[in-house]
Amino acid sequence: MPVRKNKKPLLCFDEKGIFCEQAGVYLDPWKPVDKAIITHGHADHSRWGHHQYITHHDNIPIMEHRLGDINVSGVNYGETFTVNNVKFSLHPAGHIIGSSQVRVEYKGEVWVFSGDYKTEDDGIAVPYEPIRCDAFITECTFGLPAFKWQPQAQVMEEINNWWRQNRDEGKTSVLFGYSLGKAQRLLKFLDPSIGRIFTHGAIENMTDVIRPMVDFPETTRITREVKKEEIKGGVVLAPPSAHGSTWIRKMVPYESAMASGWMAFRGARRRRAVDRGFVLSDHCDWQGLITSIKATGCERVICTHGYSEIFSRFLAEQGYDARTAETQYEGELAEMDTKTEEVKNEED
Asked: What is the 3-state secondary structure (H, E, C) of 260-272?
């Protein structure tokens, strides 16, 4: 069924978030609302203050870890629930563990809000599933042709080789990645035969939440009791906010690296003052976005955070009814965050 051209959209954007007026439900709202469907646990999509949360079962422990005592209920992928005659269901987004797309259907019209998503199977998250729809709301974090990812196996081989070389030179390898999603993806495929794997407390705390769902290598949390000599030659997983903190002094001598899609730009590595950049993203590259949108069979595309203007113009040239919408989502910019609260407790 084609999208209704002259009627109010099934999903609209207001000052609180993405709103389904017929159901009275918001999707990943950025201001407190009565009922919110949450796609995943990253802070820009999962915020404190809503009266009721609905999300995938695997995302519940992540949200409770981050947000505390909340009123949250879980559903399975493909499970339909109805609110005021509007049918909702969650489907794999492949972004991080427990991440979802939201399918919304009313009177035969189908919209899909993708949240954040990626098409490569990372071996942790349930792989992305294209959903047929009339209208598709997509992120555009890396919506430029310049972004083209290498296979995960190749990137992880490069990371393990980097670690092995540093070990042979008597150095510690400090690898920065966002504490939810990226850090666990790195951990899953680090080679323990090279040496010991150490973690910053923020990453260890989040990994502990996810361990019941994923088989990870053994890790050692870095505390005051862990000696510098123990760490030497190992690899340390840390959030970007630990870079430049007093916490990292224990790693000297060390080589530093960051895993992020932004490492595709040489300037990003220089700005972050790291020795090495590994291009590894939990979001789609340019071709991944295009392939995903084609697979939905949609007519209308609404482009949100990232290179939304450029990507929207490209889609319009391809014949889509494409436009942009303002949100408060950050995409992988969150991975470059320099907030210090993650390291505060490690330094006190």
From this structure: CHHHHCHHHHHHH
Structural tokens at position 87: 């049918």
Q: Which residue has the higher pLDDT, 333 or 335?
A: 333
Count CB neighbours of 197 within 10 A: 22
Segment 12-60, tens digit of pLDDT: 999 999 999 999 999 999 999 999 999 999 999 999 999 999 999 999 9
Tokens of 273: 């003052």
Tell me the Cα Rg of the chain: 21
Using the predicted structure, report yes or no on whether residue 341 has a pLDDT greater than 70: no
Q: CA angle at residue 66 from 274 to 91, to 5 degrees?
A: 90
- Residues shown for the chain: 348
Beta strands in 220-295 (DSSP E): 220-221, 235-238, 254-259, 276-278
As a whole number of angstroms, the distance between CA 238 and CA 202 comes to: 8
CB atoms within 10 A of CB 132: 12
Show Cβ contacts of residue 130 under 8 Å, excluding neighbours closer than 6 positions: 292, 295, 296
What angle do helix axes 152-168 and 182-189 make, rounded to 10 degrees?
70
| All domains in the chain, ordered by first residue | 12-146+282-335 (3.60.15.10), 152-278 (3.40.50.10890)
d(C-alpha 347, C-alpha 331), whole Å: 28
Q: How confident is the model at residue 332 (pLDDT cuts 50, 70, 90)?
A: confident
Whole-angstrom distance, CA of residue 332 vs CA of residue 139: 11
